[in-house]
Amino acid sequence: MxxxxxxxxxxxxxxxxPRPLARSIGRGLRGRCPSCxxxxxxxxxxxxxxxxxxxxxxxxxxxxxxxxxxxTILIVGHVVVSGLLVCERLFAPPVWxxxxxxxxxxxxxxxALLRPLKGGVVGLQWALGLHxxxxxxxxxxPSSPLPFPPKVP
Length: 153
Known about the structure:
With 153 residues, the chain is an all-alpha fold. It has one domain (21-132). Helices cover 44% and strands 0% of the residues. It is built from three helices and no strands. It has helices spanning 21-29, 67-90, 95-128.
């Protein structure tokens, strides 16, 4: 059985514009809109702007909730533990000094990495068309946020 679909326009569906992965992640890491690279991505320390003020790209679809902290913990943990072990082996400073220094390093490094990593994750999601960053009309927000109809009394 053969089924054909026609859209009335005399052609197949148009291909979406390519979204380069590395460019989108790089823009996110720099805190810029993954679409245009000109607009600011953040509206505070970690709050993402709902819409880019330059190109109008909707950014509220992002789901960069858990991955940026996991990546931050992974990177900071490796840096701090490696540094602590090397420092202990070479210099053998007092424990109180190591505690103060490495807790400070961990805190500052976490604050420095969390925002760029969140921007990179938003750029990744945008480039791959995940979580509502789709490439067509089907990616729009549904009119009703409820999955089920309301109960009638």
